[in-house]
């Protein structure tokens, strides 16, 4: 029997989604609780692994169970009772066909990146936003963001640790919204390269700060050193996954 679940979590304090030796991870917390509740060893497969400090509002995973008398809502309630102090919450769960795969069945992933643009430091929003205390040219940032939409070679926008066989990706959406001190980026694509969203945001902030000139030149350069810094993980959220 295969279950599909949607989970929300705060990434602060975790090494990321993926289970690793000697450090806390979201995957390990979920597998531990699910294995205890369902009385068998559970392994979860996820739509997209998030890095240390990255948050999720709509991460999706699946797992298989040989036999269970628990209904999905009972599993959700029990997991949330165990993990609420860890700031990991299951939003929903359902039984799905065994052909469903959280990663390979996904047709689009949506990310959000949040910035607070003000001089004074953050208190309530610390570890939830990137604090940018200097002035940004928002109109130029929006203009340059649209140069990234479409099918491109994003070699300049992936980390050196990226394991993808090539850097060709199609970015369906990259929009920038401003509400008072808050600047929010929305990025959507079927798949992203390692650190791609954070590098795009860091580059656009550098451009809006007058430190870099043109996204087109950075794309054509096909070298990570041409792009801007990698934005901090605390501002990144996996918003939702489409199937």
Automatic annotation (TrEMBL):
SUPFAM superfamilies: Pseudouridine synthase. CDD domains: PseudoU_synth_EcTruA (cd02570). Signal peptide: none annotated. This is tRNA pseudouridine synthase A. Belongs to the tRNA pseudouridine synthase TruA family. One of its GO terms (molecular function) is RNA binding. Formation of pseudouridine at positions 38, 39 and 40 in the anticodon stem and loop of transfer RNAs. Homodimer. The keyword Cytoplasm does not apply. The active site is at residue 51. One of its GO terms (biological process) is tRNA pseudouridine synthesis. It is an enzyme of class 5 (isomerase). The lineage of its organism: Bacteria, Pseudomonadati, Pseudomonadota, Alphaproteobacteria, Rickettsiales. InterPro entries: PsdUridine_synth_cat_dom_sf, PsdUridine_synth_TruA, PsdUridine_synth_TruA_a/b_dom, PsdUridine_synth_TruA_C, TruA/RsuA/RluB/E/F_N. Keywords: Isomerase, tRNA processing. It catalyses: uridine(38/39/40) in tRNA = pseudouridine(38/39/40) in tRNA. Its EC number is 5.4.99.12. The keyword tRNA processing applies. Residues 5-104, 145-243 form the Pseudouridine synthase I TruA alpha/beta domain. Substrate binds at residue 111.
